[in-house]
Every structure is written in C-alpha cells, then in structure tokens.
Design brief:
Elements (H helix, E strand, L loop, with lengths): L2 E3 L7 E4 L2 E5 L5 H11 L5 E6 L5 E6 L10 E3 H5 L7 E8 L2 E8 L3 E10 L1 H12 L5 E6 H8 L9 E2 L6 H17 L3 H35 L9 H13 L4 E2 L2 E12 L2 E10 L10 E2 L5 E9 L10 E2 H14 L3 E5 L16 E9 L18 E9 L4 E11 L11
Parallel strand pairs: 2-6, 7-10, 17-21
Antiparallel strand pairs: 1-2, 3-5, 4-5, 4-11, 7-8, 8-9, 12-13, 13-14, 13-20, 14-16, 15-16, 18-19, 19-21, 20-21
Protein name: Type IV pilus biosynthesis protein pilO homolog
Pfam families: PAP_PilO (PF06864)
InterPro entries: PAP_PilO
C-alpha cells in the first residue's frame, strides 16, 4: 500500500510504496492507461522517471487518501541515484513501520524494491533480493530521507494514468493547430517535422540502449572483491593496530577489540572496555547505561592496494576454504547465500555469489592461524575480533565465487 511522506521545509508530499517496471522508451498516455488497467481496477496513479544513465521506469499505485497526484513526487526515483549502485536501504518511518528501497542497474528501482511495511514483512523481500548479488546496505530514518528528498529537482510529479495530465490537453490543441496548418497548405512542412521527430526518437532509443549495454558491461567488469584488501594485507594492518592497543586505562580493562577495513587508507578500530575499579569519568569512549562498560571507536592508518581478481567456481571455493580451515585446525562456519528466484529477464544478476564465513582463529591470525588463507582465491576478511572473557580470536570473511557454470568475464584493456 502506497503512503505519503512529508518533511518539514519541503513543499509537497513524497509517495512511497509504488510498483516499478522498466520501459524501453518514454511511454505514451495511452500506454500508461493500458498498464494501469492491467495492474488492477484500483490502480491509476503513476510516475515516469528517467535516470541519469537514461534508464526509463514507470511506477504505479492506487490513489492515496487525502492526496492529489500533482502534489506528489515518487521518493524512490529521487533517492535511487544518491548512492553507489547496487544498494538497498531500510528507513524507519514511525512506530513499527519501515520503507524498503532496492536499486540496481542504471540506478533503477527493481521489481518489489519500493515497499512499506513492518520488518517482518520487509525482511523476506530483502532476503530474496540479496540473492541477486552483492549490495551496499543502508539503514536510516526520516531525517536521512528528508536530506535526500531535498534533491528532488528534475523528478516529475505523479499523474492520473486514466485521465492524463493537463499537458495532454495542450497536445490535443497542438494537434488541432497541426490540422489547420495542413488545411492551409503546410502538409510538406508537417511531414518534415514528423520525420525529424521520429528520427530524434530513434536516436534517443539507440543512445539509451547503448548506455544500458555499457552500464551492464561496466557492472560485469567491476568485480567488488578487487576493491577489498587481500587477507594478508588486512591482517598486517590489524597487527600494527593491535601492537599499539593499550590493554587497560585508569581502572578500565580491555574487554573486546574489533578491526575492520574502512577505506583503502584507514581501518576502524572498535574497543570495548569493562570497569575494573575505575569510575565513569575516566571511561574511554561512550559509557553504557549501567555504567560498567564503555565503547571507543578510532581510526588507524592503512595502505591497501587492489587485490587479485582471481576467484573459483562455488564448489571449488568451498572445498578450498574447508581445506585451509582443516589444515590449520580452525573452526569454520560457511553460509551459502539464498537460492536465486526465477529471473524476470530485466533485473540483472551478478555472475558471482558471496558466501559468509565465520572463522575461529583461536589466536591472533598473524601469529600462525591466518597462514595459508591467501591460497583460497576470492576470500576477503572483513573483521578480526578479540574477546577477552574467553581469550577468543575470530574472523569474519566474504568468500566470492562464480556461480556454477558461469565464467568470470575477461577484463577489457
């Protein structure tokens, strides 16, 4: 069910909860009307949006109470281009109500990627979409949406597909004027104009198709694991950060430590402290509500270069990962992504998949347990952690692999 959101200081409303689909070209009013009738007798409001990459989409919904389409803009069309694709976001609206948006190729909203509901209703949709490939996942609030909604310039308001916008009347008047011109002897001029318009439309369609092909080729080439630090480089950087880590601080003892990659030149270090005779005034970082724990976040320098492009087929990657764990006597939990849903032929699916790996190192990985992890092509560590209570060192990783029967595209020069 579509809803209207409003934000302080912003004129008009913003519609969420539309059903989106791809269009090969700008749809006519008659095409919008036919599409609305196909979707259901109560569906009549629509939005038409063209992304910066030239991808055209239409979104439909039932009329929303106490609102007029001319006063609404589709929020999904506004926010789609404001993060690097592909991305999905969940935004808290009020109470237990959330908005889910999912954007992929050409910064377009995918089918089912504009929904309003509770987390119990939205999480199954998000899990199905995760099977399409790698995503950047974002969480936010109405404040975040308000900031993004300010960039609504260039996004058209919604319209009633069954009655048409006011400008359709101007088209009718223009048609009448054209007839009068023909009667006055302007037939030749009119034909030349029509031919020029047809040629311009054909050129636009060709340009859009070329842009879509180029975007898809770039998406296939831009494999995400190359931008993530190689495991040994990441472990080296974490070791330097750990060597500088203090174990106690004025009555507060180190309880937990996490090392994560932030950028190619920085790590994020999250430290948890437990009170051991100290007082709240001396707590490092942010104090917990019970006053006995504190959390500190800091940045540490790093220098990560692009990593190897090599990956294995999924079956071989699993075998290599288990071999590494077994040879080093490590515990390992390897989780496959959800199975792919039948493709609609329009939503692109990455040729690779991503497995989640939880590794029990038992000791700092740079002191031996991490040795040999580089032999597993496509594995990328995303966190190294330490828990003081049980003296446990752990790692989380992503294992990238090609879907069975699919080969990695050759890199273009």
């Amino acid at each position: 069910m579509a809803e209207v959101l409003s934000f302080p200081g912003l004129k008009g409303g913003f519609a969420v909860g539309l059903s989106w689909q791809h269009e090969e070209a700008q749809p006519s009013q008659s095409a919008l009307r036919a599409r609305a009738l196909d979707l259901g007798r109560n569906v009549r409001w629509c939005a038409v949006h063209e992304s910066a990459e030239g991808a055209i989409q239409t979104g439909f919904c039932e009329p929303i109470a106490d609102a007029k389409p001319a006063g609404l803009k589709p929020l999904a069309a506004i926010v789609a281009g404001q993060h690097r694709q592909p991305w999905m976001g969940v935004f808290h609206l009020r109470g237990d109500l959330y908005w889910y948006v999912a954007v992929r190729q050409g910064h377009t909203v995918i089918a089912g990627g504009d929904r309003v509901g509770t987390l119990d209703q939205l999480n199954p949709i998000r899990d199905r979409h995760r099977a399409l490939g790698e995503w950047t996942e974002i969480e936010g609030t109405m404040r975040d949406l308000a900031a993004m909604a300010r960039a609504s310039k260039g996004v058209s308001v919604m319209r009633d597909a069954l009655t048409g916008p006011w400008k359709s009347k101007s088209y009718a008047l223009a048609a009448v004027a054209g007839v009068m011109a023909l009667v006055a002897g302007g037939w030749h001029w009119y034909e030349r104009q029509q031919e020029a318009e047809r040629e311009a439309q054909l050129m636009q369609q060709r340009a859009i198709a070329a842009a879509q092909r180029a975007n898809e080729a770039a998406r296939q080439q831009a494999v995400p694991w190359v931008e993530i630090a190689a495991p040994t480089e990441f472990m080296r950087a974490c070791r330097r950060a750990w060597d500088r880590q203090r174990l106690s601080d004025t009555g507060w003892a180190l309880a937990g430590w996490r090392c994560k990659p932030a950028t190619p030149t920085a790590l994020t270090i999250e430290t948890t402290w437990k009170r051991e005779g100290g007082v709240a005034d001396n707590a490092p970082g942010v104090l917990s509500q019970d006053g006995n724990l504190a959390t500190e976040t800091a940045s540490a320098p790093a220098a990560f270069l692009p990593s190897s492009r090599a990956v294995l087929a999924s079956v071989e990657a699993q075998r290599a990962m288990w071999t590494y764990a077994q040879m080093n006597g490590l515990s390992l939990q390897l989780t496959m992504p959800p199975a792919l849903l039948p493709s609609d032929g329009k939503t692109p699916v990455d040729p690779w998949l991503v497995m989640a790996a939880d590794i029990g190192f038992g000791a700092p990985p740079w002191l031996g347990p991490g040795e040999g992890i580089e032999t597993v092509a496509g594995v990328r560590l995303t966190e190294i952690s330490y828990e003081a209570a049980n003296q446990a060192w752990k790692g989380t990783a992503r294992l990238y692999a090609m879907r069975n029967g699919v080969s990695l595209p050759a890199r273009s020069e």
